[in-house]
Each structure stands twice: as structure tokens, then as C-alpha cells.
Amino acid sequence: MIRFYFHPTPNPAKIALFLEEAGLEFEAIPVDTKKGEQYSDAYLKINPNGKVPAIVDTDGVGGKETRVFDSSAILLYLAEKTGKFLGKDEDRGELLSWLFFIASGVGPFSGQAVHFQHAAPQPNDYAINRYRREIERHYEVVNTHLIGRDHMVGDDLTIADISLWGWIDRAPVVMKGESIPLESYPHLARWFDFINSRPAVERARKILASHTFKSEMDDVAKRALFPSNFPR
Question: Residue 29 phi/psi, 5° resolution?
């Protein structure tokens, strides 16, 4: 069985979608990051980086309990374990390229765009411009790639689609001020609607909404989410 540690944010959302698409047996365990639960001794044994998501596979290789952290690592691990959503062998290089493009580009730049537009204590025009412009460039790269395509790689759902969905689902937050955030990216918007219509998406959303997390952005939450902003 998979123990899935989550908070309702983009990277855990990817894993929730994979688990539902694959029909795996799992236990969803909330980690309230605004309360700092990601820094508990018990959780740091699962993910030393103190982030979500993470999983523990109680039936790993050789029957050994296995921990995996970082959403891309988890997607690859589960896809290889189940043999699902890896695409065709001849598309392996393409799959890995897009998976790591999302991991190193779309994800972190989206996260920084969100931070500087919504959470930074003081406006920083340079940072907002840098991260917004770069995420817009990433969106355009994917938009161009998706011309004439329903999936990121090949003709079927893969972990590249699942990974991208987690972040494009937050486009309204990333693209602050845009009433239709994907209006300039019609092929990306079409792809998102196509993926978003899958029945497993609704089930994944229910997992993410299954626990009431702390909502107040008080000093405890700020220290838990942005520890580098505070003296040690």
C-alpha cells in the first residue's frame, strides 16, 4: 500500500491524480504546512527536505518499505512500479525531457511567480516581472508543442501530462490579473480542458479537499512556509 503525504498544493495534486488514474490502494495523510508539520521529526524521516508530497510504499522492491520524495521522483517511481503512464519505449527520451522541463521550469517559476505576486511582504517589481515573463515563456513553449496534440508525449496519458496538470490547474493564481489566464495559449487551454475532464481528476480533487487545513497566514504560517525570511 502507498502512504501518501499531502497538502492541497500543485505538487501533491499530481500524485493524487496518478494514484486515482492507476487505481492504486493508498492512504492519504495530510501534512499541514502552515502549522509546520513538514518539519516534525517523524516527517523529516520520510522527506529530509521538509516538503510535500512524499510517499511510503509499504511493498517496495523486494517487499522492503520504501520512501520516495519530490513529485517527479514519485511519478517516475510509481509509473515504473505499475508499468502505467510511461508511454512507449521509443518515446522515453521525449517523456523524460518534458517531465524534467516541468520539474525545473514550469514548477519552480510558477511557484516564484505566485510567491512574489501573492505572498511577498513588499512588492518587488523586478521579481514579479522576471518570474511572470519566464512562466509566460514556458507556457508558450508548451503551447507550441501541443499544436495538433492531445497529450504531451505520444497518444496516451503519461506522467508528463499528470505533472503538467498539477501546475496548469493553478494558472489563475500564477497569472494574477488575467481574467482568462490561458487565453493567449489556446493549445495549452485545449489540452488542460481535455485532461481536466477525466473522471480521475474529480476524485483527485476530493482527496485534496478531504482535510481542513489551516488557512490563516499568521506568523507561525509565515515561518513555516518561508523559513529563510526569518533569523535562525
Answer: -120, 115
